[in-house]
Structures are given as C-alpha cells and as structure tokens.
Amino acid sequence: MTNNKARKSINNLCFFRQKICNMNDSIQEEYELLLREEVSGKYVFPEQLFAELMSDRELHKLYIEKISKILNDLLKKEKTIYSLNIDYQELYYSETIAFLESFNYKEKLKIELTERIPLYRNNHYSEIVPREIIKSIKQMGYDIALDDFLLGVNSFRSLIDLHPY
After folding, report:
1. Residue 110 in contact with residue 146, Cβ under 8 Å?
2. What is the pLDDT of residues 39-73, one digit of tens each?
3. Where are the domains of the chain?
4. Half-sphere exposure of 87 (CA within 13 A, CB side)
C-alpha cells in the first residue's frame, strides 16, 4: 500500500461497537470497539493498513490523531465504558503514551492489549510484556484487559506478570 493510499485509508477508519456481556450482574454497559475501514460500501478490519500502522511511525501518528478525535467525540456524550484494542507494539510509540496521558475520559476507556508479538521493542529480553509501560498506563487511571487470552503474548505468564496492574 502506498503512503498516500494509507493516509486516505486512515481517513476512512471508524469504530463499530460490540456489546460485552458481563455475567456478574453489572449494571454498567460495556462495548468493545472494533476498528473498521469502509471499502466499497462494506466495513472490514483493515488488516494490511494495520500492519503498516504498526511498522511506520509517521502513519501511526496519523492513526492516533484520527482515533483520538473519534474517541473524544464519542466518550464526551456517553456514560458507557468502551474497550479499545491496543497492540503491544503501540506501547513502544511515544504518541500512543501521549494520547493516553492527555485523553479526557480515562474512566470510560478500558485498554485491551492484543495478543500480537511486537515487531520492535526496547524492554529486557526476558520480559514478555512491557510491565513498566503497562504499570504507567494503569497509574494514568485506565483499566487493563488482555484480548484473546492464551493466544500470542497473552499467556498465563503475562497474566501473572501483569496481575498487580
């Protein structure tokens, strides 16, 4: 995908919401946000674009700007809690952390870490997940969840390492 085509695709991104059924009799409504791109009148997960967003910092910055606007607009008028999937690779990008720090509705946004192994990382080799980064996100006021538990990076080891957060 060319850089110009990727930029255009970023502009076509949106979120669909999928209800999370809580079996604990919770009154609070929760939804998972599903990233979608409109392509020929259909909304699909932008697999190729997403791979580029994870490996191209310039495109990732544009993506963060786009979802920041969408999420701020959505959550300022909602009481519902939304779960946002974040790839572990994004935790190593300063624009992701800056977005999370400055986001106005932390209490309404749960961070759901996806199972993909990061392409580039700078934490200790034996550390499966970036504990210090995740700890700092928790300290910002976010709840943390693991997406697709027992797949990829989201193993029992990761759960044990992240349990305090």
Report:
1. no
2. 888 999 999 999 899 889 899 999 999 999 999 99
3. 3-162
4. 20
Structural contact between residues 54 and 60, judged by C-beta atoms closer than 8 angstroms: yes
3-state class (DSSP) for residue 143: strand
| Separation of alpha carbons 118 and 102, rounded Å | 24
What's the CA gap between 11 and 53, in Å, rounded?
Answer: 13
Q: Phi and psi at residue 110, in whole multiples of 5°?
A: -95, 140
Amino acid at 141: G
In a 3-state reduction of DSSP, which class is residue 125? coil
CA–CA distance, 13 with 163 (Å, rounded to integer): 33
Question: Hunting for tokens 């949106």 — which residue is that?
Answer: 14
The CATH superfamily label for domain 3-162 reads EAL domain (3.20.20.450)
